[in-house]
Amino acid sequence: MTAARDRVAAARSLLFVPGDRPDRFDKAASSGADLVVVDLEDAVAAADKDAARDHAAAWLAHGNRAIVRINAPGTPWSDADLAMAAGYGCPVMVPKAEDPAVLADLAARTAGRFDLVPLVETALGVERAYEVCSTPGAVRAAFGNVDLSAQLGIAHDDHTALAYARSRLVAASAAAGIASPVDGVTTAVRDADALRADVAHARRLGFTGKLCIHPAQLAGVATGFIPSAEEVRWAERVLAAGESVTAVDGQMVDKPVLERARRVLAAAGERRAGR
Predict the structure, then answer these.
(1) DSSP 134
(2) Integer Rg of the chain from CA
(3) Can you give the CATH number for the domain in which 54 is found?
(4) Which backbone phi and psi does 28 adopt, to 5 degrees?
(5) Contact criterion met (CB below 8 Å) for 193 and 225
(6) What does each C-alpha distance from 206 to 85, 181, 254 come to in angstroms?
(7) By 3-state DSSP, what share of the chain in percent is helix, strand and coil, each rounded to 5?
(8) Residue 12 belongs to what domain range?
(9) H/E stretch holding 78
(10) Could you tell me if 67 and 114 are in contact, meaning their C-beta atoms sit under 8 angstroms apart?
């Protein structure tokens, strides 16, 4: 993996900043988010799309790094967004990702100069999740709970209603051999309990990061994706027992359990190191 791809794969918190608010770019970059996502799509009105792209280009030209969420392929702004992001080698978040041929075309048109983050937020995207995640250049998928729930006619914060879609994206990412996906947004910006519940649910399903819409959410996301002290102690006991041991704390231990223990300690170590 390149260093940039590594950062995308390992990020816990990805903070959106509207592309038409250049006054917020530096604040987002210094907020403590693992990655900044400059949003040229939903956060920007049609009349401001071109100006937002220019603002993003000017900021990136000074050596700043970010993911760029382009407008969806087929819209009047998508090609110019793509060319700008590719010119700076930025990872590209592709909204409404549902057609692997379209995603492959994006990568081919710029000779693979950037990594793709498919944003799966339609019913067709969910059903094609494996094909989307298997697209050359795709490094990690993200989940668009708000758009998907609108299409399905359900609440965007209903864990049960969206469990199938979330689980399908987690399984598809693993099957495609890419990083575990990034969960969607919590729209209740100042509700710490809602954020905590959303992060716990996402982590339980296999997500390892989350899209954020406000800096106030970053600390909760960072904390929520760290293995708990109890999990770390369990992992240490499993590995300390040795690979020949078949049970720890009355529970069977085999190769998959050992691997999970290693992943728990690796995740805890990465967060302690500030990565």
Answers:
(1) T
(2) 19
(3) 3.20.20.60
(4) -65, -40
(5) no
(6) 29, 8, 20
(7) 50, 15, 35
(8) 3-225
(9) helix 78-87
(10) no
Q: Is 179 helix (H, G, I), strand (E, B) or coil?
A: strand
| Structure-block tokens of residue 255 | 């190769």
Report helix, strand or coil for 152. Answer: helix
Q: Answer left, alpha or beta for residue 2, where phi above 0 means left and psi between -120 and 50 means alpha.
A: beta
Q: Are residues 178 and 111 in the same domain?
A: yes
Could you tell me if 171 and 200 lie in one domain? Answer: yes
- For 99-153, write each residue's pLDDT tens digit: 999 999 998 887 777 899 999 999 999 999 999 999 999 999 999 999 999 999 9
Q: What is residue 188's three-state secondary structure? A: coil
What's the pLDDT tens digit per position in 38-63?
A: 999 999 999 999 999 999 999 999 99
Please indicate, yes or no, whether residues 234 and 221 belong to a single structural domain of this protein.
no
Number of domains in the chain: 2
- Both structure tokens of 79: 């090609």
User: Does one domain contain both 109 and 46?
Assistant: yes
| Nearest residue to 56 (alpha-carbon basis) of 80, 33, 30 | 80
